[in-house]
Amino acid sequence: MLMQAASALAQMPIVQTEFTADPAPYVHGDTVYLYTTHDEDYADGFVMKDWLLYTSTDMVNWENHGAVASLKDFKWYEGDNGAWAEQVIERNGKWYMYCPIHGHGIGVLVSDSPYGPFSDPLGQPLVWQKEHWYDIDPTVWIDDDGQAYMYWGNPNLYHVRLNEDMVSYSGGIVEHPHIEDYQEGPWFYKHGSWYYMAFASRCCPEGIGYAMSSKPTGPWEYKGHIMNHTAQTRGNHPGVIDYKGRSYVFGLNYDLMRMDMPEHHERRSVSVAEMHYRADGTIEEVPYFRETAIEPVGTFNPYRRVEAETMAWGWGLKVVENGRQLWRTNTSGGIATPVLYTRSSAHPQLVVADIDEGETLTLREVDFGKKGPKTFTASLSALRKGGQIEIHLDRSNGPLIGALDVPVTGSHEKFAESSCDLAKVSGVHDLVFVFYGTAQKELFRWDWWEMKEK
After folding, report:
1. What is the pTM of this model?
2. Could you tell me the CATH number of the domain that includes residue 220?
């Protein structure tokens, strides 16, 4: 599938290698951690088994970290579906993931790292009102005074005051009066002196509405839409952050699925748009995602090891877990021999897979500096026939700066390094990798790459 200009796709779903929904962005340090739910790519209805993580430091290039938690982490739940809209927050060096399991309340997982592994400290739900199935879509905020709150609910809105341990609460469950146009997916946060409750507004189609309050516990006054109801999508689910001096609203749609098929399936995709506050704290309405564009808030450094599953656009590709054993080329005495080694990371190896003839992978705003790159090296595997990666600037038919031959390793578990020289280039450009080969199916798999500076 040939690549359009990356700038024309900036407003499309930000993850294309799998179907994602229910965005839960969190800013920590200089990084946006975007946790999402995961619609299986064969699903007609909701089939959701795990929670995924993506990170970015520029809002246009996202690194895929795969599944960081799943239903299997809750030993008290015996089902294999129902991993609904989570939210993650850090406190005192611990990362807390609040996970609704539809019909079984809201559980909580904890980790020492945003990447996991996560474990269940309670062995039971944190909240479960067994008389109904309203306990979904948790959202957590820690106020300036240290008090943490968790809101949730469809079609009603509830909250509790979390204790400092973040896995228990004091007092009872508080139910709030209905907010106009509220349906589900609350997102609770503070901006300036105001508290906000963004939410998915009434279906169908859902928009993104919001309410404001001068207190963290309400009362909540409906203020209108962040994004209006639109026939361009059926559902929505907001996540709102401030990052590097700008404000963003994340949501979901079916745009990626509709690139493949006109009929409806529950295979959703996360998108993001910049949003703006007025002087009185109200929010200017944001057009639908495809009618907006995200500008990068940083540049991409190519002079380091880059996981191949880092991209701004990669429609048609997949990211999969490989085994942890790889093959690396060790040059000794002038002879290159494959040497087996094992990753030191506790996390499974993620690789870009399902690479077909003519498909592309794009990174935006790559800063080559004044000297420019000298060489390009990648770790790749091919069952047979290999292939080639062409390296272009700015677009898929832009200036060609290098071409890399893919080695045949005979197994997807075996990876070998391949290198090529690069033509002179400096400054900031989009970087487009174009894939070629003669295999009838998947051409090859790609683990990582790096450039060396002149």
Report:
1. 0.92
2. 2.115.10.20
